[in-house]
Design goal:
This protein is mainly alpha-helical. The chain is 71% helix and 0% strand.
Length: 203
């Protein structure tokens, strides 16, 4: 577990994440041809689609039971063989880190999408008109669905760049407003503490 920078994250009980991740890893690692394979330099053995179940089991060992890859290969081999050999398990381990990074970034961007959309709706409500201003590109459900469907870091970058292209002015306004609200909140907290101290001195 010391071989990667991304910490091992347990999956909440009842979550479908391991199943989704297993399908994603199968597609990214075992279905997508490598450059050398495209050029005909390497013949990769065929991995059946049913292997996703074994990938899911390997992920469960790694993420929920915190087992090391060599331990899984030698002491839990009945769950992963013959489809996943030691080198395949290392690939699953490596791509689990990529999956975790991708999901963390997607969640952060989704959170920002939702905050900016709430801010946009608040701006429209404050204007007293139901019309969207000409200089505002309202975040739609289709934008959020597109983000949720992202499968690679490159796709995520495309969605993020598209978001910045259309919503940069709203992001700046939102950050400015949030900064102002934070300062006001801190001022209230300071004033409240000062009031308590004065009351204590008068007692």
């Amino acid at each position: 577990m010391q071989l990667r920078d991304v910490p091992i994250q347990s999956v909440p009980e009842g979550s479908n994440e391991l199943e989704d991740e297993a399908k994603w890893i199968f597609k990214q690692v075992f279905q997508k041809p490598s450059i050398s394979r495209i050029q005909g330099e390497e013949q990769r053995r065929k991995i059946p689609a049913e292997t996703t179940g074994k990938i899911k089991k390997a992920l469960d060992f790694i993420r929920n039971q915190h087992l090391e890859v060599p331990f899984i290969a030698f002491y839990r081999k009945e769950y992963v063989l013959p489809d996943l050999k030691l080198k395949d398990l290392w690939k699953v381990y490596k791509y689990d880190a990529k999956w975790c990074i991708l999901q963390t970034r997607k969640r952060a961007l989704l959170n920002l999408f939702e905050r900016i959309r709430d801010f946009q709706l608040e701006q429209i409500a404050d204007s007293g008109s139901d019309d969207v201003p000409e200089d505002m590109r309202l975040i739609r459900d289709s934008d959020i669905e597109r983000l949720k469907a992202v499968q690679t870091p490159e796709e995520l970058k495309d969605v993020h760049d598209h978001f910045l292209l259309h919503c940069a002015p709203d992001i700046e306004k939102y950050k400015s407003l949030e900064s102002q609200r934070k300062q006001e909140q801190q001022k209230k907290v300071r004033e409240g503490k000062l009031k308590i101290r004065k009351e204590e001195l008068l007692v």
